[in-house]
Design brief:
CATH superfamily of the largest domain: P-loop containing nucleotide triphosphate hydrolases
Oligomer: single chain
Number of helices: 14
CATH architecture of the largest domain: 3-Layer(aba) Sandwich
Number of strands: 18
Low-confidence stretches: none
Largest sheet: 6 strands, mixed
Shape: globular
Radius of gyration: 30 Å
CATH topology of the largest domain: Rossmann fold
Length: about 500
């Protein structure tokens, strides 16, 4: 067991005027299983890069542990899998590699296939297995669940639960609950470490916010009351001061000693009120610095002219003569939110592309209602780059509406001036979701919209969909989101 000490850490990118971290201090145990959470763009991956020594910073980071990073870069994916794994952990025996991948439900035969022929889920699993075989290394795991189906996520969570010594960035609430024993959270004003899983952390965080809200309300009332009392005391003091050289109503001279005593008493009362007011203001200023406000999003779906929008009957998509899915039949009616579920590679994205009108070879029949307007959120964000203004113009978006949606999804105004290629993965995905929310459509097709998206925005999007009830066909492996949003599930 050893500790990682972070003391007075301050960091900003050379091209940025705002600090990612500012004078933050905390420490973590290298035996812990840490879940690392926070809003998109708050600096989770940046912190990993600081631990890896990639950037200069102010403050200190002290650790006796060496670090490994996931996803491990594989420049040449045409090589055999066992060659790549032996390079990652050269001290591991073959039987150890086979044992580890068996824990992750991977057949031994993948070891003797080119790495590029493995599915995304298989690649994730074998790289994790190899990295954990490097003894003495503390593993920095950056969003391993992207593109993993629910079954694979459960397998990886069970695997991680048996391990120790890692920090895991993930926004999947169920996944975090299944494998971590501590939470490292980047909040608005600080970074905190707490024992427990995501659910226990969220419960404590909400309780703290509720307590601070009530304290804030009480102090606000106290400050208002003290201000009124202070005004009255000031008026009384002024009246007494003015009467020092005056007379009573009966014409007799005032006792100057009595007047002076009363003036001093009024002054002391005013000072006490001022001290109490300043103390309440100071206490109030320490509250609600970490509150995460999520404003309601809006959507304007087009009314459907007919009840049935789409009908698939025994549809199978074929690439280069090979079917990617077994025949599937389902229909989409107005108000449906159809979840396409299934393992990676089962053809979910292919079915979505077919509905979108891509000329894919297929069997069976697909009927799409005439004049159907579709809004699409795709998986891939690698094409996003350039100025935000060009993105808005190229997609013919309402600029004030689009930027308003981004602001509600926790974009700072300074982000609008940056090149999109410098956005985090979650910020790029929010860009595509905001674009879709600007589009008036009969049907919304979203393909894994939540990859990289932070927890608060996930709940914000859930609330939007349940409120406006658009007609949707979507693929998403976040189980909590599935349960909240889907009205029907089609399994491929």
């Amino acid at each position: 067991m050893s500790m990682i000490h972070v003391q007075n850490l301050t960091f900003s990118y050379p091209s940025s005027f705002d600090n990612i971290f500012e004078d933050v201090s905390f420490q973590i145990d290298t035996d812990w299983k840490l879940g690392f959470i926070g809003r998109n763009g708050r600096g989770k991956t940046t912190f990993f890069n600081l631990l890896l020594g990639k950037y200069e910073y102010n403050g200190t980071i002290v650790s006796s542990a060496a670090f490994n990073y996931f996803p491990y870069p594989v420049p040449d994916k045409s090589r055999f899998t066992h060659e790549i794994l032996e390079e990652i952990c050269p001290q591991a025996e073959d039987w150890e590699l086979l044992r580890e991948i068996s824990y992750l439900d991977i057949d031994a035969e993948v070891m003797y296939r080119p790495f590029e022929t493995l599915s995304n889920g298989e690649q994730t699993k074998v790289l994790l297995a190899a990295l954990f075989l490097n003894e003495g290394k503390f593993l920095l795991i950056d969003e391993p669940t992207n593109h993993l189906d629910i079954h694979a996520r459960k397998i990886v969570a069970n695997y991680l639960r048996r391990k120790k010594g890692f920090i895991l960035i993930s926004h999947d609430r169920n996944f975090l609950d299944g494998c971590v024993d501590h939470i490292l959270s980047i909040n608005r004003a600080d970074i905190e470490v707490q024992s427990g899983n995501y659910s226990s952390w969220k419960l404590n965080f909400d309780r703290q916010q509720e307590h601070e809200e009530k304290t804030n309300e009480r102090l606000q009332k106290d400050i208002g009351r003290l201000q009124q009392s202070s005004k009255r005391s000031a008026n009384w003091s002024n009246q007494v001061e003015a009467s020092k050289n005056g007379t009573t109503n009966s014409g007799s001279k005032l006792d100057k000693g009595f007047v002076g005593h009363k003036a001093a008493k009024m002054m002391k009362r005013a000072k006490n009120l001022e001290t109490r007011q300043n103390k309440a203001i100071e206490e109030k200023s320490t509250l609600l610095k970490n509150v995460e406000k999520t404003e309601s999003l809006q959507l304007a779906p087009l009314p459907c002219k007919s009840k049935q929008l789409i009908q698939l009957t025994d549809v199978s998509v074929r690439y280069e003569g090979e079917f990617v899915n077994k025949p599937v039949s389902f229909k989409v009616e107005a108000g449906d939110r159809v979840l396409l579920d299934g393992k990676n590679g089962s053809g979910k994205s292919s079915i979505l592309k077919l509905i979108l009108g891509e000329p894919l070879e297929h069997t069976g029949t697909l009927n799409v209602s005439s004049g159907l307007v579709i809004s699409y959120v795709q998986q891939d964000t690698s094409h996003l780059k350039g100025r935000l203004s060009d993105f808005i113009e190229g997609n013919q978006l309402d600029e004030p509406l689009f930027k308003s949606i981004l602001r509600k999804m926790d974009f700072d105004r300074i982000q609008f001036e940056k090149d999109i290629s410098h956005y985090s993965g979650g910020q790029k995905k929010k860009l595509l979701i905001a674009k879709s929310l600007c589009e008036k459509a009969h049907l919304y097709i979203w393909d894994e919209p939540l990859n990289f998206i932070d927890v608060y925005s996930r709940m914000q999007i859930e609330a939007l969909i349940t409120s406006f009830q658009p007609t949707m066909v979507f693929v998403e492996h976040d189980q909590a989101f599935q349960e909240e949003v889907a009205t029907r599930t089609v399994t491929l």
